[in-house]
Write a structure and sequence with these properties.
There is one protein chain. By secondary structure, the protein is an alpha/beta fold. It has two domains: 207 residues, Periplasmic binding protein-like II (D-Maltodextrin-Binding Protein, domain 2), CATH 3.40.190; 107 residues, 3-Layer(aba) Sandwich (D-Maltodextrin-Binding Protein, domain 2), CATH 3.40.190. The chain contains twelve helices and 13 strands. The strands form three sheets. Strands 3-2-4-11-5-12 form a six-stranded mixed β-sheet, sandwiched between helices. Strands 8-7-9-6-10 form a five-stranded mixed β-sheet. Helix 4 packs parallel to helix 5 and helix 6 crosses helix 12.
Length: 321
């Protein structure tokens, strides 16, 4: 099980003690059991064909950013399409946490997944995840921004006012929910969690948003794509919170498969993503608020470079054993 080694300067000893099974690193070093002969930073399929996996049922999981029950229906049409293309039964796995998703992948129980932005390096290096697709707008643009939010009347007018207040992160594997804001707060504003402000982990972006609105936290770091979907569904209103900071654009959830799937099956899974017709589907309706209307090809080496740079700035290491 991967264990995090997170510098005290980022979180402090009180919060750091709660970070079992979380980690990211900057240099994208694969665990020793994987090989990368082509230098693309992801695990190669095993050269020994006897190690290829060709299950009767494919298990798919979407990143646990919101209520998993909502996404069973959202993904149903897409999974039916994957069944048609692959000839396999496809089962939705409603994971409750990033740790559960990654451990299922490491154990070989999860074959295809959408992994949150910050979790991709851990999934790639420790679980043999091979991301190949990402959601994008019709014009091919993609991504989301990290926002730091507070509730109206909190008395927090700017980021510097977070000193002495409470702030929620989502989980240590989240880019927008932890790694990016941690680096930003420290480097640009001189604010360190547990030294300059009280910090907590909410478990997900929607928990952080609702926690701020309900005044459980004075502020939170969130992905604005999640907030947009919650607003579109009527869960929250735009006036329920105020935005203190908006970051540069980051890549969004990466979709991929396990490295050791039979190459023919892996190719059919890719085909299922890129041949899916979005128009009129529950998937299109759910992600319309984020202006996402198709899957586009991506590479971990290129599209996750900014995330690896953030991790390097945070000096975070991990152990895949």
């Amino acid at each position: 099980m991967p264990l995090a080694t997170i510098p005290r300067a980022l979180l402090g000893t009180t919060l750091a003690g709660a970070l079992a099974f979380t980690a990211l690193q900057a240099s994208a070093d694969l665990a020793p059991r994987f090989t990368d002969s082509d230098g693309d930073l992801v695990a190669d399929a095993p050269s020994d064909e006897s190690q290829w996996v060709d299950p009767d049922t494919l298990v798919f999981a979407y990143t646990p950013v919101e209520d998993p029950a909502v996404y069973v229906e959202v993904w149903a049409g897409f999974l039916e399409h994957m069944e048609e293309v692959t000839g396999k039964r496809v089962q939705f796995f409603p994971v409750q946490s990033n740790a559960a998703q990654l451990e299922a992948m490491r154990a070989g129980r999860l074959h295809v997944a959408g992994v949150n932005t910050g979790g991709n390096p851990l999934a790639v290096n420790c679980a043999g995840f091979v991301p190949f697709a990402m959601m994008a707008a019709e014009d091919g643009s993609y991504g989301y921004e990290m926002e730091i939010i507070t509730y109206p009347g909190s008395g927090i007018e700017n980021v510097e006012d977070l000193a002495g207040r409470s702030m929620a992160f989502t989980s240590p594997t989240s880019n927008s929910g932890f790694n990016a804001p941690s680096a930003l707060l420290r480097s640009e504003f001189g604010l360190v969690a547990e030294e300059d402000f009280e910090a907590a982990f909410s478990g997900s972006h929607d928990n952080s948003i609702l926690g701020v609105i309900n005044r459980d936290y004075d502020a939170a770091a969130i992905a604005n794509s999640v907030a947009g979907r919650m607003i579109a569904r009527g869960v929250v209103d735009e006036g329920d919170y105020e935005i203190l900071y908006t970051s540069e654009t980051f890549p969004t959830t990466g979709y991929g498969h396990l490295y050791n799937l039979h190459p023919d099956l892996a190719e059919k899974i890719r085909e299922a993503f890129f041949s899916f017709e979005w128009e009129g589907t529950a998937l299109a309706q759910e992600f319309a608020s984020a202006d996402e209307a198709q899957f586009i090809p991506i590479s971990y080496q290129e599209h996750w470079e900014v995330i690896r740079t953030i991790n390097e700035a945070n000096d975070v290491t991990y152990d895949c054993d």
